[in-house]
Amino acid sequence: MSHAVIELSDISYAFPGRGETLKGLTFHLHSGEKLGLFGPNGAGKSTMLHILMGLITPDKGEVTLFGASISNAKAFDAARLKIGFLFQHSDDQLFCPTVLDDVAFGPLNQGLSREQATERAREALETVGLAGFEDRVPHRLSGGEKKLVALATILSMRPEILVLDEPTTGLSPEAKDRLVDILKKLDMARLVVSHDPDFLAATTDRLLAMRDGRIQPGELKPHSHVHVHEEGDVPHQH
Length: 238
Description:
Layout: E1 4-14, E2 20-30, E3 34-38, H1 45-52, E4 60-65, E5 68-70, H2 73-80, E6 83-86, H3 99-109, H4 114-127, H5 143-155, E7 161-165, H6 173-184, E8 189-193, H7 197-203, E9 206-211, E10 214-215, E11 226-227, E12 236-237
Parallel strand pairs: 3-8, 3-9, 6-7, 7-8
Antiparallel strand pairs: 1-2, 1-4, 4-5, 9-10, 11-12
């Protein structure tokens, strides 16, 4: 087994005035792994992602990223340069006046020159099939286009790991298929949280379940099945 790049050990967390959301959770993502995580609403999936990204601090437990125990904001800042986090809602990730500005923002904050950041941004937009969108206004894009621009903002930083929080939320079937095609071409470790079993089966190699604040023991294998979409009456396989 390759080395773990993300380790969460005995993590517990409770929001103020509520019971525990995470209850002694333990999780590992190894180099090169493509993991899917699913579970009911309220199971703690997004809370777990926010803890591993340093957006909230656990009440108990240890976060280890790339072999180093992370316990302060400065350490998280350094680790986040290697982890591309795609938020569930793209509007939380896009805030600049143009698409190019949004996608170049990360490389600029990594210390690249304006010219280097622009080159990285154009490469990332080409990767997600949005070459020519540089001067578009992000908030005027479709939901699927926003999702791809948000993905480009993290790809432009050339992360080692992708962490995707409900990436198909609000997407049309066509936009979801496009996102699947892009992810299949990206050869990097990833953790995908989703309620969409077809999407998880297409973009990950192994599935884990979260219930009641813990990762359940054992694992599930993605599998294909035949079904009919609401929009049509032709059965097909995923």
